[in-house]
Amino acid sequence: MSRGNGTNCLDDQVTGMALSVLAEVGRMLETLADSGREDAIDLRSLPLTDADRAELEQMLGRGEVRAELDLAGESEVWETNYPGAWWIRHRGAERKIASEEIAVCRIPEILKTHPVDIETAALRIRNELETTHE
What is the DSSP annotation of 27-44? Predict the structure, then answer.
């Protein structure tokens, strides 16, 4: 059922899914602590209402680490109040959420510098130093 503004009238209903996702995050954190195995939950693949998503975001909270990225659209990454549980949100056209996940890991892949970028940075510095000393 849809409202006149194009949104689903169930979007403001809390379904209990946030608690289920929170419990799964807890299990995943236990696995990470025990074995080092990383995992993720694709929030867009779950039947979460907007109210569920807001409730989950409130339950997980925001921790001390936050990053904004500008790669093929805007992305935000923040560690939740539970170290090792990261909320990753990518926005596409018109700033609409394109993908969203909870990654349970030491540090999300998106924040790791690619080895080629490191090589390029070293080369740039070497070239800069050679240029300034000529």
Answer: HHHHHHHHH---EEEEGG
CATH of the domain at 89: 3.30.1370.140
Taking the CB of residue 87, how many other CB atoms lie within 10 A of it?
22
Q: Please name the helix (run of DSSP H) or strand (run of DSSP E) that holds residue 77, with its range, or none.
A: strand 74-79
Average of per-residue pLDDT values in the chain: 90
Q: What's the domain count of the chain?
A: 1
The b-or-e profile of 102-120 (16+ CB within 10 A means b, else e) is: bbbbeebeeeeeeeeeeee
Residue 3 lies in a domain: no
Residue pLDDT, tens place only, 16-34:
999 999 999 999 999 999 9
Examine residue 104 and state whether it is found in any structural domain, yes or no: yes
Provide the residue range defining the domain that includes 38. 17-132
pLDDT range class, residue 6, cuts 50, 70, 90:
very low
Distance, CA of 42 to CA of 107 (rounded, Å): 17
Q: What is the pLDDT of residues 42-99, one digit of tens each?
A: 999 999 999 999 999 999 999 999 999 987 789 999 999 999 999 999 998 788 889 9
0.85 exceeded by pTM: no
